[in-house]
Amino acid sequence: MAEKHFRYYSSKVYRQQQRRAEKNKVLPQDSSSSSDSDDNIDDNEPITDPTELNVTNYVPDDDENTLLHTIKHIYYDNSPLLYKNSSTSVMTAVRLLTEFCVNINMDKSNMIKLMKIVKSLLPTPNLLPTTQKKILGTFGKTCLSTTKYLCVNCHQLTSKTRYGSRKCEKKNTITIVMHADGAPLVRSTKQCLWTCFGSIVELPPPVREYQSAIIVMALWVAREKPDVNIFLTEIIQEMIDLINNGTSIFVNNYEFKIIIRTQFFISDLPAKSLFFKTINFNGYFACTCCMTRGYHNPEYGQVLYPYRMNNYTRRTHDQFIETAEQTATANAFGRRELIIEGVRGLSVLLKIFSYPDQIVYDYMHLVCLGHMSNLIRRWFKLFSKDDIIHIDHILSNIRLPHNFSVFFNYSIASVNDWKAKHLRLFVLYIGLPIVIKYLPSLISSHFPIYSMCIKLLHSPNAKTEIDLANDLIHYYCQTAPIVYDPSIELYSLHGHLHLPAQVHEHGGLAYVSSFCFESCIRHIKKKVHGTKQLGTQISYWCDVETIIQREQFQIPQEMLSKLDELFPLKVQTNTFDVIQVEKIKCKCIGVPFYDALCITEIRAYCEHD
Predict the structure, then answer these.
(1) CB neighbours (10 Å) of residue 194?
(2) What is the DSSP letter of 399?
(3) pLDDT above 60 for 358
(4) What segments bear the compositional bias annotation Acidic residues (predicted)?
(5) Would you state the pLDDT for residue 267?
(6) E strand or H helix at 598, and its extent?
(7) If you write DSSP's letter for every residue of 52-110 in order, what string do you get?
(8) CA distances (Å), 297 to each of 286, 303, 485, in order?
């Protein structure tokens, strides 16, 4: 008898299968139902050995099972026959069995067992499906629901192991802030120390700023400045491996799988240009964020960035990489250095940092040691001798809260001897009420705009404050050459225009500064003895400090249950944990990390008030 060819599916069914296939690509692999774990079973494969059944081809009687003919007339059925010479199609057989299971309220597991038993009793080979997915596929349908198995602790999706168990593979993220800077080490031999530090974002301030929490990533001791592609190549490769593969740490005999992410790179302007191979801050295209070109002013002998000539076209990472590759190729063979739009070469740091979003301005150098000290030097020319004596008397006798360790031992005329902490206190708190009556009316009305702007950006309570600070800083920069003279429009003033966007991205200026890193440089310089093997000495004593057991802070029991209920400030993201600045209304903040809890005190306006 000639074998008749049957069409397995209609064109409509094929289209449905294609849509289901596209849907399955979008759905996560571990979100599918666990009942489909046996989908790799071939329906043509016998459940039992066919030799044991001694099966022959079956030819049904003409009047057998009249119900089958009734079902064929009710439902459109173009499915293949159940087996060779069968009078029943696959769809009809499956519908009869599923209706029986539904009527007697059979559970899914027993239904699959019944299908397998019936399949073993049929002649082989046969096409009776034995899985839930293939049973639905017989009617051109797919499961409309998905089953997700979540971890009861972190509520993240779990994955299925080869043994059938479920495992939570949530990756704990440690986000790194990187800082690089240099300092003189031995004056007699003119050797300098260049450091690369790291801090952990997940540690709340001020814990992340403690010297014990600062990571010494790399050291360079030499008379010459380091080449970043030599100095940091190995540490960058290790960072890339940790970003891609992660690692494990053990805390109280518990293993935690972690991955590394980077938040931003921070340094002063000379170090930033050195480590990212860009033009120095007194060049023509020195701005990190935009394409503004500086202009040389022959009257003042400086490169200025006039507000009216700003070009706010933002730099992009891809454009910066392309330009850096061009200059690196040209400078590798050319005698004269090629600089394109302020880019001098390709830095290895660009492998883990996005330019310019993750290359931030340090408000310690830009605001405190930069523009604020420049203003005081300009004011000094306007003060009389009596004014200076009165101002110095106020500064030396001022009474500050106990957590302010600031003493004004130098006159305002010696502002170059002031440290950054003096200038920070001056611009945020005491400067305006002290000097306002000694300045001309125009300047005394102009400086409050700058002081208010920096105070808003220092630790904003809401995004509206950042927007207000953005309007204030634009007005201040626009009117600064009118109040003073055009020489004030240095790059250090132009950089202030990008501070509001930086605060939107990375948080208040109080948490994006180099104060802790500069303090750490001074700390590790004390570990040097003599003039030989200086870097080895520093690294050795840093390793010794890590093995010294420090007392663990114990949280009072009465605070464990109340802290996060009263102050729900922590927000989890896919990359790192961040405390929203605009929600900080009180001092105690808790950041849970599994069974540990870190408590710190954060001031809403200043970390030292």
Answers:
(1) 24
(2) -
(3) yes
(4) 36-46
(5) 96
(6) strand 596-601
(7) HHT-------TTS-HHHHHHHHHS---PPBSBTT-SSBHHHHHHHHHHHHHHTT--HHH
(8) 16, 6, 12
Which residues, at least 6 apart from 239, have a Cβ–Cβ distance to it below 8 Å? 176, 260, 262, 352
* Cis amide prior to 125 (ω within 30 degrees): yes
Place 34 in a pLDDT band, splitting at 50, 70 and 90. very low
Q: CA triplet 126, 132, 135: central angle to 5 degrees?
A: 45
φ, ψ of residue 432 in degrees (nearest 5): -65, -50
| Secondary element (H or E) of residue 346 | none
Mean pLDDT of 1-11: 52
Query: Do 307 and 290 touch, CB atoms closer than 8 A?
Result: no
Q: Is 564 exposed, middle or buried (0-12, 13-18, 19+ CB in 10 A)?
A: middle
Place of tokens 């639905």: 136
* Residues 259-300 pLDDT 10s: 899 999 999 999 999 999 999 999 999 999 999 999 999 999
Domain parsing of the chain, residue ranges: 11-138, 172-358, 360-511, 557-601
Non-local (6+) Cβ contacts of 435 within 8 A are: 379, 391, 444, 447
Closest CA to 515 of 458, 446, 561: 458
> In 244-331, where do the E strands start and end?
247-251, 254-267, 295-297, 302-304
pLDDT tens track for 424-454: 999 999 999 999 999 999 999 999 999 999 9
Q: Which pTM was predicted?
A: 0.67
Q: Are 277 and 232 in contact (CB under 8 A)?
A: no
Q: How far is CA 452 from CA 428, 445, 460, 466, 538, in A?
A: 8, 12, 11, 11, 42
User: Which pLDDT score is estimated for 190?
Assistant: 84
Structure tokens at 205: 């301030």
State which amino acid sits at residue 471: D
Give whole-number Cα distances, 202 to 56, 205, 578, 593, in Å: 72, 9, 7, 9
